[in-house]
Task: inverse folding
């Protein structure tokens, strides 16, 4: 619309600002969800263990695993 002359630059910039704010909001929601998931794992007694064995064929080195502790079963 802007290139065709149907709208002005201010309208385009305002629309982009609204779009970026919505995208930021979506990312913040995803961050909150992931943070809550980590808190849930921790509260249930699960642990994060970093694999240190570089020869592990199932998972690449540096992969984090979530494991349930024996006291959570």
Result:
């Amino acid at each position: 619309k802007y290139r065709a002359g149907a709208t002005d630059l201010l309208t385009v910039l305002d629309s982009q600002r609204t779009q970026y704010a919505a995208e930021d909001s979506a990312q913040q929601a995803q961050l909150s969800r992931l943070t809550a998931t980590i808190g849930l794992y921790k509260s249930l007694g699960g642990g994060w263990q970093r694999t240190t064995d570089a020869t592990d064929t199932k998972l690449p080195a540096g992969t984090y695993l979530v494991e349930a502790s024996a006291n959570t079963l």
